[in-house]
Amino acid sequence: MNTRRIGLAVPSTNVTVETEMPAILARHPHADFSFHSTRMRMHTVSSEGLAAMNAQRERCVLEIADASPEVILYACLVAIMVGGPSEHRRVESAIAEQLATGGSEALIRSSAGALVEGLHALDANRIALVMPYMKPLAQQVVEYLEAEGFEIADWRALEVADNNEVGCIPGERVMEAARSLDLTGVDALVISCCVQMPSLQLVEPAEQEFGIPVLSAATAGAYSILRSLDLDVSIDGAGSLLRADARHPQSV
Description:
- The structure is a single chain.
- The protein is 42% helix and 19% strand.
- By secondary structure, the chain is an alpha/beta fold.
- It folds into 2 domains: 3-112 and 219-242, Rossmann fold (3-Layer(aba) Sandwich); 114-216, Rossmann fold.
- The strands form 2 sheets. It has a 4-stranded parallel beta sheet.
């Protein structure tokens, strides 16, 4: 069995995506994966901090391409969504062009684009969100998803600006926020609209409690990676999105 090589471009303070993504994909029944990261310095989740982080993108793409990954995930959802509607398409296109110019055949995905892809895969139109961001940034995420055609039924922002602290938010605090949402008529709940806020252990229990599909930025990222590699989407214990997907048959 060949090991599929995954590149991750992450904020310097992010530790969760490098924990949750391997944990999810290690459960895949037919493939093995290795993970290789490059970092962009960022401490405070603010418009200024995110802009400074994004300015490091070209360097990070060059560095991670040297490891010859098959697919690269640009793993900071809000950093793209603050760029305005459809920014994930522009960023993914720019990175793809940079990779091709440098002779890399790596595919590119982003956490923002992966979440949109995952919600469409679940046929979710009316959704609810839990986010760690300060309210002005959270509002931009809401507007971004609305521009993608989703109806945001309700949302909560935990207002944690320090990205180190975001990685330490207790699961019970996330669940309390989710329980405070009005989920009437909601098609799916995004229990963590951020790859740094830990949530993997919450997805299945939340589905059982709320009776609707539950996903996170991490499970959506895993889904997008598997789809890009034309691999079967069937992972135990990671929610409806990563169950065997008859609507989108995959080769193994």
